[in-house]
Amino acid sequence: MSNLTGVTLDNDNSMPLVAPIIRVRGLTKVYRVGDVDVHALRGVDLDITPGEFVALIGASGSGKSTLFHILGGLTPPTAGSVVINGRSVTGMTNQERTELRKTTVGFVFQKYNLLPTLSAEDNIKIVEYIGGRATEFSPEFQDILKLLGIRDRLKHKPRALSGGQQQRVAIARAIIKKPAILLADEPTGNLDSENTAAVLELLKDLNQRTGQTILMITHDPEAAAYAARSVHMRDGRIV
Amino acid sequence: MEGSSYKRLQPRTVNYSSVLNKLIFANLSHRPVRTFLSVLAIAVEVTMILTLVGVSHGTLDSTAERARGVGADIIIRPPGSSVMSSLSSAPISQKYIAWLMQQPHVALATGTVVQGLSGFDSITGVDFAPFDRMSGGFEFISGGAPVDDKDMIVDEYYARQHQLQVGSHINLINSDWRISGIFSGGKLARICVKLPVLQRLMDRVGYVTVLYAKLDDPKQAEAVAANLKTKLVGYPIYTMDELTSLYSISNVGMLKDFIVVVIGVAVIVGFIVVFMAMYTAVLERTREIGIIKAVGGSGGLVLSILLRETLLLAILGTILGILLTYGTQLLMHVLPSNLTQETVYSWWPIAGVIAVGGALLGAIVPGYKAVQQDVTEALSYE
User: Fold this and answer.
1) Does the structural domain A2-238 have CATH classification 3.40.50.720?
2) Which of B23, B88, B267, B324 is 20 to 30 Å from B136 at the Cα level?
3) A-B interface: how many C-beta pairs under 8 angstroms?
4) Hey, where are the domains in chain A?
């Protein structure tokens, strides 16, 4: 056995022995559309260890967004088990899933999803308000804002920011509460190539500097290349 | 040094609820027209209530003030009449004036005859000599008491509302009258002519509508009234204090009911407007509601934001409504309505509570819809 940067590996150095921060077993999700059952997930198994940067790759309809929604506590699974940071998501009530989103999971969406009436700063601070944390941006977070390159854009409303800047604000909003997991759903889907590269570099940098666990959903192999590990999905299964 | 190090290490606390307040203000200012219309609708609701209450109080209080202005201690009204019924007949023989003068403690007695006009107006026939002794006389702003039979005096409110001046002519009860004087309001009536002239026009010579008695000792009013009731059976007889205390909304059943109906209508209007505004707001902000929930906001927080917005609308509407009430007061003053509107401060909080209550009721269903909104569906809302 050896220990590399806090992660204990077994003898063949392939499987981490630390408890996974995300552990998914036999996950299924069935949507009812009219009279038809749509099987979005058909028995997904997945482990992600703390500090990993994982890309979940798949074509449209492969089930990656459904998996994203379940891992983020946005929607309940139909069957199977999902354990996030030691807490079972399966069978969680609405209130418990809200608590999960408040404390454990941070989101970065393709469409940024910033509140249009608030400044960039207030878009970040509202997460702190919701979390019941009443402290000014810490020096550590100020460094992250510097890293994200948005410190001088905090007073601006989203409409006054470029797509790349909006996505950086969304990343800042997602990580201010120091979530156990950062879930990013096609974070570069609405960006030009220059901003795409910048945002992906930021995510990678964030992962390497702070050890932030990141699960990024993408259909773009080039984007996935920024992650340390890629997981492929097709027809509701990990392949 | 130590102090500065300590300061640097301490997390600086800020009022994060201000972020939520910013969101609420920003949401309302983001749709200025809808916000303004919602506030205006609530303001109209408040104005409706305060105007009706103000007119009711004003009319009753001015009636009471005019009654007190007579200077009488005892009032005798026609049999079968009530305090609030308008008088328009003269069934009491004028001989009772002399009889009244002979009663214990009665120092002075007089009678008036009243002819109703349209609306709340009436003409009062006055025997000016005894009336002046009883009341101290009219205080004329211009002109003086009637000299000719076609002379009429009016109070300042009636003169202003009908744009009358001394020398102006007016046709009432099919007769042409010349304004001989304009007097300060608050005494007996708004339109007065000589008693015999009105008696002839009403074909009631020798009869009056109301009897007034002034006592040598006002403290004897109740005893005198009790004594008179034994002698004039069937005649409503009041002391002045008793009469004026009866001029209240609670003693006017229909008015009370009317106020309740208007308040009900006002609440429904406020409810519908806020319901529509908030329902539209929830639809428009579906995605934003999804965002708040996605970052950990509970349904309760979303509901709280909507209710706070509604509360703000209702408070602004109440303030604007109170201000608009001064506008309706001015209109009453200027228009020939003969209604007096008072500012009834005690009804400001009542109207506010009604407005806030109606608005919050209107926000409940949209709020419930927002609470129930599915996060993933809300986030995919375009």
Assistant:
1) no
2) B88
3) 91
4) 2-238
